Amino acid sequence: MAACGRVRLFLLIVSVSFCVCRSAGDKIPNGNANPLPNRQPHPAVAQYPAAGNAGPGAAVSQSRRAAGWKLAEEEACREDLTRLCPKHTWNNNLAVLECLQDRKEDTEIAPACNHLLWNYKFNLTTDPKFESVAVEVCKTTIPEIKECAEEERGKGYLVSCLVDHRGNITEYQCHQYITKMTTIIYSDYRLICGFMDKCREDINALRCGSINTGEKDIHSQGEVIACLEKGLVNEAEEQSQRYVIKDECKKAILRVAELSSDDFHLDRYLYFSCRDDRERFCENTQAGEGRVYKCLFNHKFEEAMSEKCRDALTTRQKLIAQDYKVSYSLAKACKADLRKYRCNMDTNLPRAREARLSYLLLCLESAVHRGRTVSGECQGEMLDYRRMLMEDFSLSPEIVLHCRGEIESHCSGLHRKGRTLHCLMRVGRGDKGVVDDLCQRSLQTLIQEADPGSDYRIDRALNEACESVIQTACKHIRSGDPMILSCLMEHLYTEKMVEDCEHRLLELQYFISRDWKLDPILYRKCQGDAARLCHTHSWNETSEMMPPGAVFSCLYRHAYRTEEQGRRRGSEETESLFLSRDCKVEVQRILHQRALDVKLDPDLQKRCMTDLGKWCSEKTDPGQELECLQDHLEDLGQDCRDVVGNLTELESEDIQIEALLIRACEPVIQSHCHEVADNQIDSGDLMECLIQNKHQKEMNEKCAVGVTHFQLVQMKDFRFSYKFKMACKEDVLKLCPNIKKKVDVVICLSTTVRNDTLQDAKEQRVALKCRKQLRVEELEMSEDIRLEPELYDACKQDISRLCPNVAFGNAQVIECLKDNKKQLTQVCHQKIFKLQEFEMMDPELDYQLMRVCKQMIKRFCTESDAKSMLQCLKQNKNSELMDPKCKQMITKRQITQNTDYRLNPVLRKACKADIPKFCQNILNKASDGNELEGQVIACLKLKYADQRLSMDCEDQIRVILQESALDYRLDPQLQMHCTEEISRLCAEEAAAQEQTGQVEECLKVNLLKIKHDSCKKEVLNILKESKADIFVDPVLHTACALDIKHHCAAILPGRGRQMSCLMEALGDKRVRLQPECKKRLQDRIDMWSYAAKVAPAEGFSDLAMQVMISPSKNYILFMIALCVCVLFMVGLLCGRITKRVTRELKDR
């Protein structure tokens, strides 16, 4: 061992003094006798004059020294000794020396006494004879310490070795005197072997003090080492290093700090700086093994702590950060674990790196995170020093160096209890400005070193801010458990969360989210999967190919790898592509947390920084930033659009990622969706359930808004609807390539399905599973006009003008637009017409009808398919069990259908041949998207009266005539032309709640009072239609129901047959009709007679019908027959004459 690598003979000599006081053989209680057997003069006395000729001790006689020289007897120190030291210590030179060294800082001693003490100590270090005393006192210890047993004797190296290994000394007497005597060496740096030689230039360069004897008193010598220590720690904190301490001096400084680590008395500068604070805070703390240091560290930021002591403690902590061995308790507690996990045997690293506290923490934390065993004592020490790093940013030189500007600009005056660090973390989040990249990396490194994710108590600022929340919301979790942070995140933005805790939590989570390893639960559950799938390294190692931030992205891609992507699970090859169940649960937990704040998603924040500032600067409430990005998806930059799209796609598969939404929807989930919510795999089922129960009473406004927003976002890309994507992906690629928007994809696929159905295709091009999901999507879209972007954009102005107070949802806006259809702009009107056309073809898409008539459908139409639902409801409309609201809704839909034959698919199909045959002139004037206001149906009604329609078409028109006869509103032509007349002549009948044909009857009765020709014509048409079928005249049919049953039961309805039967019965005196029937029939005859005068027959068929229903039918038919016979006879006569003339001409 090198001679200057250790503390030398001074310790040995002092040890001899101490040893002799306790030796069983030569006991010298006062420490003054010569301990050697031959009783030679005391070395200090013998050499004193040579060391200091001018000193007052020069006059001391040699005989006195030989007999037992005492410091107390020297004239130079007598006055100071009397004033400062208790009398019982005077007989022991060591006690006197310790007393005068440890005097109070404001107490001075005479320079001559200082000089005497120095020479006494210095001369003690020069005599190797006392090594034999150390051999005697430590005779059982030396063989146990291999390094010391091998030391060459006689050169003073043995005691130095014992000092180095004093932590391993178990022999009480040896340990006591080595520990006690060590204090003296630290009173003057010049007494430490080699220190003065190694650091002379650095002392002068840094102006740390003089090294000439006598220029500095005994107290100021500790300041020299303190000055060098500050120079060492400042070197790492300054970018422009004005002076670099030599490596050998650095080692010497750290070695001194290491050797003084067990007893704070040995750090003279800190001892004198903190003497009062030690009494104030650590009075009952026993010195030794670094206990006083730790106690003072724990009280470093107390208000009563003196600034001088705080500075000295900070310097000491900075030295510990550079070399963990400067902490006695940490080095001792973790020695075995460091050796076990080879934390100081990395040959690829310089020794200085291995000694750094950060390296030790990272190495041992890696072992803990890998599930290895680290002793509890070591983990306790690690916890203390990790908390220390989080409390005081200045202990991390990289932060001091790289974050100086941010600290000065944003975080000045917040030094204590981790406040500066949290302020920097807040700046790093972007809440208070922009942070430099180097500063950001330094903060990230510090968080990894301190690892507060594993124990929230490490972060004192967080611990204090969140204490009340933890006590209320997380009291069921053991203190210090990593799940505490997850618990706090689960209660973020809830009533239990306090604002200060919210800020501290988000600041810490921002950095934890950027390195998956900093979440200990995630790392423990997923380290195997990460190594297998993402090729990660150990906990404290990183890879450029897979940086920490990219590992989580890799994990969640595999967590949500679908069965279609992985083909079939089961084989070893495909199974290896999936995460373990435990890991997937943790990935889901992290995704839930990240959804709370866009800044907790590193990839999202990085790629969308510009877009967030451009589009979402005013969106500051929880969850609003992501919603804003989703709303502006088409406007985002490509990188941002991709990451937002991927996240939205992920949410569609597992909506529970949207923690805020799930929290808002908790009541409706518990009531209606608890079964799907409890599923391990969501696959879009929960969101589908929420949409289906969107209007339940348990649905609150926040949940409804969130669900609707997600539906609106889904419209932007069909991939955002997980179930739709998985069911229809192949069909979309085949039938709707290059179409991305969901609404366009739905229209494309729906059109394909409809066309295949109308054309009776043998095989549907859209797969069955896709058709089923397509139905779900169409039903969802029908609920809110905003879910159909084209319709919404076309009608925005109309909505604000006509429906300003109508809430979205429940198809209320769409219904409002339908009610105000005549006032809509052309573009909106066309869109609404197309929408109604689709709804009439498929009534299940009519959200309002399905909602209002839900119970009636269950009662009357359980066996009807979706497309015949409205037809079924119409058939049961007049049932006594029909709900009035549903009946009213059915009537509205009937009114809509009768405005245009295209809105009545049953009629359209039945009259497919009749419409172009009889009403082509009307079709020629028609335009897409505009109603024909019942003109085609009116045309078909006239042809019905003429009995010229096909059987199927006639049946449908008969139904329409019957319905419109009961309710005039179902006849758009009548309503359009007779509105004024109805309000003038039939106001009371029109106001009736139940329409049973009174309005039409009123118009018929008041036919002569009608002023408008167009209205009169419509009423005459009604009269004409009623001739064709008595069912078309509900008043007459009701009055004559019994007579029809008695006299016309065998007559088939239609084509005027039953009406002719009644007319014949009326003219037959043998038949007695009911008085009401007879009266109504006579009224009808009068009306028809008037109609014949006002509106003569328009054609032969019309004339024939009038003849058939005329009371003089027999007479008219007889006259017609007579005319025919006369014509026939004339024809015969003329034919014979022409025949004879022709023959005569031939004969010629």
Protein model, in words:
This protein is mostly helical. Helix content is 62%, strand content 0%. It has 66 helices and no strands. Helix 31 (548-559) packs across helix 33 (581-594) and helix 43 (742-758) crosses helix 44. The protein is rod-shaped and about 185 Å long. The termini are far apart. 46% of the residues are buried. Residues 1-67, 210-219 and 562-571 have low confidence and may be disordered.
List the helices and strands and how they pair.
Elements: H1 9-22, H2 43-51, H3 62-68, H4 75-84, H5 93-101, H6 111-124, H7 131-137, H8 146-149, H9 157-164, H10 172-185, H11 195-205, H12 221-237, H13 247-259, H14 268-273, H15 275-281, H16 291-298, H17 307-322, H18 328-333, H19 335-340, H20 351-355, H21 357-369, H22 376-391, H23 397-402, H24 404-410, H25 419-429, H26 437-450, H27 460-473, H28 483-490, H29 499-512, H30 520-533, H31 548-559, H32 572-575, H33 581-594, H34 602-615, H35 624-631, H36 638-653, H37 659-664, H38 666-672, H39 674-677, H40 685-692, H41 701-714, H42 722-735, H43 742-758, H44 768-781, H45 789-802, H46 812-819, H47 826-841, H48 847-852, H49 854-860, H50 869-875, H51 884-899, H52 905-910, H53 914-918, H54 920-925, H55 935-945, H56 951-966, H57 972-985, H58 987-990, H59 998-1005, H60 1013-1028, H61 1034-1039, H62 1041-1047, H63 1057-1067, H64 1075-1094, H65 1100-1109, H66 1113-1147
Helix pairs in contact: 1-6, 1-7, 1-10, 2-6, 11-13, 12-17, 21-26, 22-26, 25-29, 27-29, 30-31, 30-33, 31-33, 34-36, 42-44, 43-44, 45-47, 55-56, 55-60, 57-60
